[in-house]
Each structure stands twice: as structure tokens, then as C-alpha cells.
Design a protein that fits this description.
The chain has helices at residues 36-46, 51-54, 56-62, 72-77, 80-91, and strands at residues 7-8, 11-12, 27-33, 94-104, 113-124, 129-137, 143-154. Strand 5 and strand 6 form a beta hairpin. By secondary structure, it is α+β, with helices and mostly antiparallel strands. It is elongated.
Length: 159
């Protein structure tokens, strides 16, 4: 492979830009509608049988939610898609997640259409990291999750 760039998926190693080429305010969004099948697959993968997630009747009687709720961690995982698109495709930088924090504001239900947005909020050049804000809204424009993450930006080859 001498003289050629190795590839991983659709990305060529060595094609990435440096942290000083990342603009604050750059953002990417992704839209996803949760289905009963999404929730059931997740439940089966985790072997999670908490009644708030699996039993509409129990949830209606025993909680304020009225019907089963999508796991918060499943909702938070949606951040990965716009984050990857923002870093690798739009900004052409190679990032590795360092820290993440989320605050769950409202429940998410199957049938909800969520818009997930990741925005570059700050460049931490001395640490070679960026801080991004994350926000997820439902189709009623209600914020269901807010958070932030720090992403280590891998320096391009040869720098």
C-alpha cells in the first residue's frame, strides 16, 4: 500500500483537516421517528424488562407517562449520527469522543419524530478538542434532551 492512502469505510486515512479549520457554529441535524419495532429491538438487545418501557397498561396505571417510554439512552444514542456526519463529512476532521453529558427533559414515545442537532460550541485548541452542544426536539418543538460533548480531534497525518 505504499504511496496510497488506506481506507476505512468511505473515509481515506490522511484526508482529514486540522482543528484550526473547524468553525464555531458549524452544525448538523438528523431526523428520526421512533417505531414500536425500534423500541422492541432495543429492549430485546438489552434484555431490559422495566415495565415503563415494555408495558403500556402498567405505565398508564403506575406513572404519569400514560404509555411506554423510549429508553433515554436510546434517545441519546441518536446524537451519534449527526455528530459523525458533522465531523467526518461536513468538516472533514477525525474525532474520538472524550466526554458526554445529557439531561433528559421530557419523555420520548414511539411515534415521536425527533430532530437531533449537534453544534460546535467551542474550540479547545490547547487540548486538541472541540466542545459541541446537543439538542433533541420532538415534532411538537419541545426539547426532550440537551447535552454537550467533547471530542478529541486527531491531528492529520504528517502534522
Amino acid at each position: 500500500m505504499e504511496g496510497q492512502s488506506a481506507t476505512h469505510g468511505q473515509y481515506r486515512l490522511g484526508q482529514f483537516k486540522a482543528i484550526d479549520q473547524i468553525p464555531v457554529g458549524a452544525s448538523q441535524s438528523y431526523v428520526h421517528t421512533f417505531t414500536d419495532e425500534d423500541l422492541d429491538r432495543f429492549i430485546n438487545t438489552l434484555v431490559s424488562d422495566a415495565p415503563v418501557h415494555v408495558d403500556d397498561e402498567w405505565t398508564r396505571k403506575e406513572t404519569k407517562f400514560g404509555r411506554r417510554v423510549v429508553h433515554g439512552v436510546l434517545t441519546a444514542a441518536l446524537v451519534s449520527r449527526p455528530l459523525t456526519a458533522l465531523l467526518f463529512e461536513k468538516l472533514q476532521v477525525n474525532g474520538i469522543i472524550h466526554t458526554t453529558r445529557q439531561k433528559f427533559i421530557r419523555p420520548v414515545y414511539t411515534g415521536d419524530t425527533l430532530t437531533v442537532t449537534v453544534t460546535v460550541a467551542e474550540i479547545l485548541k490547547d487540548k486538541n478538542r472541540i466542545r459541541c452542544s446537543t439538542e433533541i426536539k420532538n415534532d411538537r418543538e419541545e426539547v426532550v434532551l440537551v447535552g454537550e460533548l467533547e471530542e478529541y480531534i486527531v491531528p492529520p497525518s504528517g502534522t
